[in-house]
Design a protein that fits this description.
With 96 residues, this protein is of the alpha+beta class. The protein has a single domain, classed as GIY-YIG endonuclease (3-Layer(aba) Sandwich). Helices cover 40% and strands 22% of the residues. The protein is built from four helices and three strands. The chain has a three-stranded antiparallel sheet, with helices on both faces. Strand 1 and strand 2 form a beta hairpin. The longest helix is centred in the middle third of the chain and has 13 residues. It is globular. The two termini are 13 Å apart. 24% of the residues are buried.
């Protein structure tokens, strides 16, 4: 089963959330519609700014745990490598 690691942001250089899932479009829908109470709904973290796909969900979980331990600047660098304008890239999920 595939796995996805993703980063959501409230705005450019705003609050970040790193998560992992096997259903990224479904999980993003939950975040954007505040269907699950918690961090992302409390802080308005809804914009998908980075994600990566893995062949195994276990690999994705390991990667998520690693990224969560990173300093904030490393996460900002990761986002800006591929998304320097901090655009919502959820449209990339249409083919998933």
């Amino acid at each position: 089963m595939k796995g996805y690691v993703y980063i959501l942001a409230s705005k450019r250089n705003g609050t970040l959330y790193t998560g992992v899932t096997s259903d990224l479009p479904g999980r993003l829908f939950e975040h954007q519609n505040e269907l699950t109470p918690g961090f992302t709904s409390r802080y308005g973290v809804k914009t998908l700014v980075w994600f990566d796909e893995y062949d195994l969900v276990t690999t994705a979980i390991t990667r998520e745990k690693t990224i969560k331990k990173w300093p904030r600047q490393w996460k900002l660098n990761l986002i800006e490598e591929n998304n320097p304008e901090w655009e919502d890239i959820s449209w990339h999920l249409m083919g998933l």
